[in-house]
Design goal:
There is one protein chain. The protein folds into four domains: 253 residues, no CATH class; 79 residues, no CATH class; 85 residues, no CATH class; 159 residues, no CATH class. The chain contains 20 helices and twelve strands. The strands form three sheets. The protein has a six-stranded mixed beta sheet with strand order 9-8-7-10-12-11, sandwiched between helices.
């Protein structure tokens, strides 16, 4: 009786450890080898420490796979009818089996990762604390994934079902986003929903969205500076670990009421069956939709219907473990699913609420941002902000024309973001014909100084600039560099040899330089030439409603950023960026790159005059 009331059994634990030694043994070898390989590639503790944050970020997928394998092997007896009945005939209560297997699973994670952390601590030397932070992250991640995997095992009756439930549970947000983008997004003309925040509901994605610690590597001193923790990612990690603990409790409750005769079934928990069937059917329809895009774009709905039918009836066969599932109840369920799907797609297409047709009134708009980038990532560094009523009216007119005359043009993108007087934002994305009147209007905005240089105040732009470089595709103009020290310039002299014109700080000491060492006269003349081409509408890059002239060269402006400014450069210029490392007394440096095209005659003539001097 003592054995039956026990919640833990040492014999079962030892058997788990020895029986499944290949699983945790191979994982231990993999972890130790990974650290050795990283160390061999970096060769210094400082560089190894700098890469530790990236290792922490990447281990989520490894933990997902390892925790799933551990749960499948530890509770594998539940998938075999004879083994399941035989083991559960022993005088050991189910709580004892469950908690002992869970203890073994945590040991499979704790022991290998502790050994790897001790090795990493020895290699990291004064940065050894990063190794123990890594260990804590691994344990907390494993707690979630192991809890989710054990919960999935209790919901399934065989390994295939357990893998399916575990995959759906961990990737549900990704699957929902994929299905939505497949079936509904094509009908939302002009609307692009940002699904990325919702992907955090899938920890497989959320665990490596952001780094856990922030470090900066100083190349000159060969040291790594610890900047602190990223609280948001740690909060997400602890919440996920808490969810994993709750899932283990729910798994125990399911296990206590589990019918042993369900061993071998795809799904053992009855309420999970319909959820699996619906997701499986929708995914089958989505796959057939993409097949139709390859072979017959016009017959996509036939392919979707075929995919739904294949998914629904094969799913029924898997759930019931028989082929003869063609009953009137099954056809009724399939009809209900098709009806609900058709109604939701129809409402999306008809848009009774007028969401896709909405264009704000001019007086409602506080400002409007336009960008030619379809990518949301590049949009943040490629936008033109307009606040004048005439400009807002011009954009709303273009917007209304695009809504009234929907065309499948893929010439060039237009992303519009309205900031209304109420504070609400409205974002839309369209494609514009490059030969249309709308493109001509937009081309003027994309050639403006505000868009190309990020500002119309050239004096402010050059105030902190210390180097201007021009790299040409044409032999008639060599490499030109204005500013910088002789030491800096030696790099470019060695690279370009005789095809270089260098105006360094030392060379221009008596020629009138700015506090940063930049020659004011030459720099200002070049900026005036660029401004003239901007006003002529010749500076818009080719993907931004440009006529498509070839690139003549690239002008890069390097500037010191004041200490008070953050590393997120607030600029409207498409190519404005800021370095992730710090130079010269740890002052951040910004890089603004401007493309010069063959029709930018004012800029090219000025560069030629510099080359001729």
């Amino acid at each position: 009786m003592k054995l039956r009331t026990s919640f833990f059994n040492g014999t079962v634990l030892r058997k788990d450890i020895t029986r499944f030694a290949p699983v945790w043994g191979l994982y231990s070898i993999f972890t130790l080898m990974a650290f050795f390989l990283i160390w061999e590639s970096e060769n210094t503790a400082a560089r190894f420490a700098n890469n530790a944050s990236y290792v922490m970020q990447a281990m989520g997928i490894v933990n997902f796979a390892y925790a799933t394998i551990c749960a499948l092997v530890l509770f594998g007896d539940l998938f075999n009818t004879k083994l399941c009945n035989a083991l559960h005939a022993f005088p050991l209560r189910r709580e004892g089996w469950f908690l002992t297997h869970c203890a073994a699973g945590f040991l499979f994670c704790l022991v290998p990762n502790t050994a790897a952390a001790l090795l990493a601590a020895a290699l990291l030397q004064e940065y050894c604390y990063l190794a123990f932070l890594w260990l804590a992250i691994m344990l907390l991640q494993f707690l979630f994934f192991f809890g989710a995997a054990v919960f999935s095992v209790m919901c399934a009756g065989n390994r295939l079902g357990a893998l399916a439930v575990c995959g759906i549970f961990n990737l549900l947000a990704v699957l929902v986003a994929w299905l939505f983008m497949t079936f509904y997004d094509p009908f939302l003309y002009g609307i692009e929903l940002d699904v990325e925040p919702y992907l955090n509901f899938s920890p497989v994605v959320g665990f490596h969205h952001f780094q856990y610690v922030e470090t900066v590597y100083d190349k000159m001193a060969n040291t790594t500076v610890f900047k602190g923790f990223l609280a948001e990612q740690w909060q997400y990690l602890f919440i996920a670990a808490g969810v994993g603990a709750v899932l283990l409790v729910l798994a125990l409750l399911i296990y206590r009421g589990r019918h042993l005769e369900n061993a071998g079934n795809l799904i053992s928990l009855k309420p999970v069956g319909p959820v699996f069937l619906i997701i499986y059917t929708l995914c089958a329809g989505a796959v057939m939709y993409y097949v139709s895009e390859i072979f017959s774009g016009n017959g996509r709905y036939v392919f979707i219907f075929l995919g739904f039918a294949i998914g629904f009836f094969t799913g029924k066969m898997l759930l019931e473990k028989k082929v003869n599932v063609f009953r009137w109840k099954t056809f009724l369920g399939f009809g209900i699913l098709l009806t609900v799907f058709g109604i939701t797609v129809g409402l999306t297409k008809l848009d009774p609420a007028g969401v896709t047709r909405y264009v704000p009134e001019v007086q409602e708009v506080k400002q409007v941002q336009i960008s030619p980038n379809a990518s949301r990532y590049y949009y943040e560094h490629s936008k033109c902000i307009l606040t004048e009523q005439a400009d807002i009216e011009a954009i709303t007119k273009i917007h209304q024309d695009l809504v009234d005359n929907r065309k499948a043009s893929k010439d060039s993108a237009l992303r519009i973001t309205y900031t209304l007087q109420s504070g609400r934002t409205v974002e839309r994305q369209y494609y514009v014909d490059m030969q249309s009147d709308a493109a001509e209007v937009l081309r003027g905005y994309y050639s403006s100084p505000q868009y190309i240089l990020g500002t119309e105040d050239i004096a402010a732009l050059l105030e902190n600039a210390f180097m201007l470089e021009f790299r040409s595709n044409e032999e008639e103009i060599p490499y030109i560099c204005i500013g910088g020290s002789n030491m800096d310039q030696q790099i470019y002299v060695d690279k370009y040899e005789e095809n270089a014109i260098i105006y360094s700080v030392e060379d221009l000491a008596e020629a009138g330089t700015s506090p940063t060492g930049l020659n004011v006269e030459l720099a200002r003349g070049l900026m005036d030439a660029i401004l003239a081409d901007c006003k002529a509408g010749k500076m818009a890059p080719p993907w931004e409603y440009h006529e498509g002239e070839d690139t003549f060269g690239w002008l890069t402006i390097q500037s010191f950023m004041p200490q008070s400014e953050t590393l997120n450069l607030n600029s409207n210029s498409i190519s404005a960026s800021i370095s992730t490392y710090e130079v010269i007394d740890y002052t951040p440096v910004s890089y603004l790159e401007v493309k010069i095209f063959e029709n930018c005659t004012n800029t090219i003539e000025y560069l030629k005059s510099i080359a001729e001097q």
